[in-house]
Amino acid sequence: MRWRGIMLTVSGALALAACHAKQAEVTLPRPVIAVVVHRDSKPVLATLPGEVNARYATPLSFRIAGKLIERNVRLGDTVTAGQVIARLDPDDAQRSLASAQAQLMAAQHRLGFAEQQLDRDRAQAQEQLIAMAQLEQTQDAYVAAVAQRDQALQQFALLKNQTEYTVLTADHAGVITAEDADTGQNVAAGQAVYHLAWSGTVDILCDVPESLLTALTVGSAASVSLPAVTGRRFTAHVRELSPAADPGSRTYRAKLTLDAPGPEVRLGMTATVTFADAAGDAQADDPITLPATALFHEGNAPAVWVVRPGDHALELRRVQLGRYDDRTISISQGLNDGERVVLQGVHTVSAGETVRAVAPLHPEDFAS
């Protein structure tokens, strides 16, 4: 009986301790991902869709006509400068070169004979053994032989070049973006076989409405985001602005150069181009840009969760949205600079709940 009483006492103490531990665990503040927000440094003029393009893209073609017998690269392949990418049947070009070489040898032989005859006639003319008219004829034959040699030499050089033109090489490093001829096809001189986009400088193409023309000039800065490259924004500058509007869309084509594109930026990607007011500074009524994951609703009104600075409790704050983007929202009213806003898990918290604000593990995932 004594031991039974001791065991009951110990069991009760352990159960009470477990209850206290469980109660203490429940009352701990809940961690939430939240950051201090600030107003945008410059007002946004416009956000436009764009596309990644190479600055230079050229068709690759043979200089002579012929039958395409070999293709060494395919669509999407990366090539280097001087790399052989295609060949024509060289038989006709080689035969023409051999014929030109034979004509050059004959012309050189005739020139040698004419030079020897000229030397003999000059010696005999000094001894007055031949008439001056015969010497003049010999000199004329020598001049004609020199011209025939020069003509044969130029023809040989031309046909030698044409033999080399049966090999198509890439003149710049880049990526093959199109295939325009198949093996076995007879191609004409200048007919495109491939299209090559040069590597290096990358442009962003976008169409600007006429309402922005007064605010944009060559050299204007822009911020570029790519849906395929999440968590990163690129800086770009306007390189070229079309002087005339497109007849169909009535917009002006702008070409922007990315400052540091990186290998993750690929041709053909879609882009979002944001132009900011270069003359604007942050004002009290400037918007605050947040990730779209921070958006919640109170009834039909948009709202965000704000962590109160005093008791660290959550407050559902109605806000007014100025703009929706693919990954961000722009809040024009309802938030103050320096307040802490919940960025993730907005559907799992409740008003008045005490929380512990935690910075994002990967801040670039929530970059605006």
From TrEMBL:
UniProt entry keywords in alphabetical sequence: Coiled coil, Signal
Gene Ontology, cellular component aspect: efflux pump complex
InterPro entries: Beta-barrel_RND_2, CzcB_C, RND_pump_MFP
Molecular function GO labels: efflux transmembrane transporter activity
Superkingdom to which the source organism belongs: Bacteria
Residue ranges constituting the CzcB-like C-terminal circularly permuted SH3-like domain according to the UniProt record: 288-347
Coiled-coil ranges per UniProt: 97-138
PROSITE patterns: PROKAR_LIPOPROTEIN (PS51257)
CusB-like beta-barrel domain span: 205-278
Family: Belongs to the membrane fusion protein (MFP) (TC 8.A.1) family.
PANTHER family listed in its UniProt record: HLYD FAMILY OF SECRETION PROTEINS (PTHR30469:SF15), MULTIDRUG RESISTANCE PROTEIN MDTA (PTHR30469)
Protein name: Efflux RND transporter periplasmic adaptor subunit
Species: Paraburkholderia panacisoli
